[in-house]
Amino acid sequence: MLGTAKLTAFVASARPDRAKQFYRETLGLRLVSDDQFAIVFDCAGVRLRVQKVESLQPHAFTAIGWQVPSIRKAVSALTKRGVGFERYGFLEQDEQGVWQAPSWAKVAWFKDPDGNLLSLTEAAPPEKRPRPVKARKTGTVRRPIKTARAARKATPSRAKRRR
Description:
Blueprint: E1 8-13, H1 16-26, E2 30-34, E3 38-43, E4 46-52, E5 62-67, H2 71-80, E6 99-100, E7 106-111, E8 117-122, H3 148-154, H4 158-162
Parallel strand pairs: 1-4, 5-8
Antiparallel strand pairs: 2-3, 3-4, 6-7, 7-8
């Protein structure tokens, strides 16, 4: 039903002036509008609404993520603009804070001025990507295929059947 509808992403901010500067100046998103309820940015055709709230307790998990062609270049560019990347003791991250997932994707996390956790992801190279699993028709039961030899063993011979 919503597979063809455009997505709008939401994040909240208790510091809208700082959020506006961060998303526009630091991340380079195009400002669409700013009213009493939200600051709206365009991000490659997806609307990002930064909701203006009185107070905010950010979640511990990723709120928004971007797919980038080169995570190394993106991390370097954002670091030059003053963005600090998160470090997690339970993950093996390189000197830039990049973690390689079991899927071979590379991920790095950073926070906006309100503490919302944001991420960058570089997809795994094509040769490392898992192959898609073919969907099976529902209601069908797969049975092992018998070889001719196995079928003969399973069927009594004519001589044995006559007795």
